């Protein structure tokens, strides 16, 4: 059984500025701003919400099936995914677009300035649904022979989907296709929340199997649609509401109150980089739910994955296994049911 994950697959370029943005920003000059921040260090990472979630799921032995568009500079990312053993079957390269890219400058105080180019992500609606019973993938590769058959058989049927942040049109199209095909989806609007009206958000939620959001995203959703986490639960949906270092809350369908899931301890106690912890959490959720585990147990696994990610710099640089997670689970909540 595979998990369909749609959304962004992007390059992240992270730059380090040794000073403070505040020392260079002056109110009287905002109208004609022209600043240069010299960067003492730079690194390029593989990122994007969909790929980050897929990475976490793969670490646990899950079967992610990415469904997105890539740009003409996709070759290094494609090789990275293949090295990880993550199928590229549902990915299409658009030769007249660039890969989505985020350019992030961080100052000495941890403040960030980010410029994001959507590139191919904004045309993901052009990528066909990955029909894994055929030999030709969206990536254009024709699978033949024993290796191809093994890849397709290993993926198996899609039993759950996650709509992670991506282009507005594509998110809407993917929701429609999931509904048409009877594939339950988790709605994870993330930073794409401002793109949608209250009515559009409500429609996504009403047709979803579950909804996942952070405190900030919960506020945006409620302000736009009038739906609080409790109201969403009363619609018969499962709600995974994350609170950063304070853990998460799980609202079961029609529940009167949430179940609190504490944050798992960060290995070694060193929280090096919180970026991507939410995506790692979601990868843990998908593993639990597709393994037949309940929402609360799945959220506990998710909490452990988020803590492991926080201990590593970069969004796809941590290393863990299902055995590691099982041991941590047992130390926190008793014998692991997986």
Automatic annotation (TrEMBL):
The keyword Flavoprotein does not apply. Keywords: Kinase, Transferase. Pfam families: PfkB. The keyword Transmembrane does not apply. Residues 39-318 form the Carbohydrate kinase PfkB domain. Gene3D superfamilies: 3.40.1190.20. It comes from the Bacteria. GO terms for molecular function: kinase activity. This is Carbohydrate kinase family protein. It comes from Sutterella massiliensis.
